[in-house]
Amino acid sequence: MSSLVIPALAVLSVGAIVYALWPDNKEQEDHVKRRMAGRKSTNEIEELREKARESVAHKMVEKVAPLAVKPVMPKDSAEMSKLRLKLCSAGFRSENVSTIFLASKTLMGIGGLIGCGLYAVTAGKPLPDAAGMVIFGAGVCFLLPNFWLSSVSKRRREKIKEGLPDALDLMVVGVEAGLGLDAAIQRVGDELQNVHPPLSEEMHIASLETQMGIPRSEALQNLASRTMVEEVRALVAIINQAEKFGTSIARALRNQGEALRMKRRQAAEERAQQCAVKLMMPLILFIFPSIFIVLVGPAALNFISSGFGQK
Prior knowledge:
Layout: H1 2-21, H2 25-37, H3 39-69, H4 77-89, H5 97-123, H6 127-176, H7 181-191, H8 197-211, H9 216-227, H10 230-245, H11 249-278, H12 280-310
Helix pairs in contact: 3-5, 5-6, 6-7, 6-11, 7-8, 8-9, 9-10, 10-11
């Protein structure tokens, strides 16, 4: 029996080596198909090139961004945390987003300085005018990222504010159907993903924080801090008070939803009432002169022609 073990192991070893070195017909067929079609190999090459470009761009950003951030780096952690909150309220949460934002300010300022300097030199401006133009252009370009961030953050806050009453109605339905508040937040976030994406994203983040072990009150406070919306802060305060005093959360959510809907209706009525006042200037500047010319113009021409003809 022992004499058969060594030949058997030798045969198995030879078989394994042959199997490992044996050409794979499937790979050959795939290679032939790629050679004949030429499409798949081209797509693979394009994907490799795209990945190479992304890696090069990422490395360039990692090397250039810290150098551009140094001149505008916040002096203390409080200012840096404020900047991160602004970026979070605009929907930007990656690790290096603050570095990229600060680097963009520096690069925009340098670009504005160079552009205005070249324009002043080519236009032949005097030195004081050229210096003022360069300083003004550099300052405006340096502040453009701040204006853009404020605009994006404001639009996102408006979207969250618009979707909050619908979210509260769905949360009331879920809580009254027997779901817990955490499960209701997660379910409402899933339901609002296509209708109100910013609010759905924030609710998903709050749900993930509670699943990671963060207390619900702290997760809701983080939600209010990220969104920077007063209605969300009021909602978080109402939910925390309802849990603290043991009152009905469904009733509190329903009352808050009705209050938000009434507030939204009043804001719409206010904007509708302002339309008449806002239309006065276009009417006076553009419509009334046209109507005056159409109505009075022919009579004035006839009067002028008849009067000058008699003279």
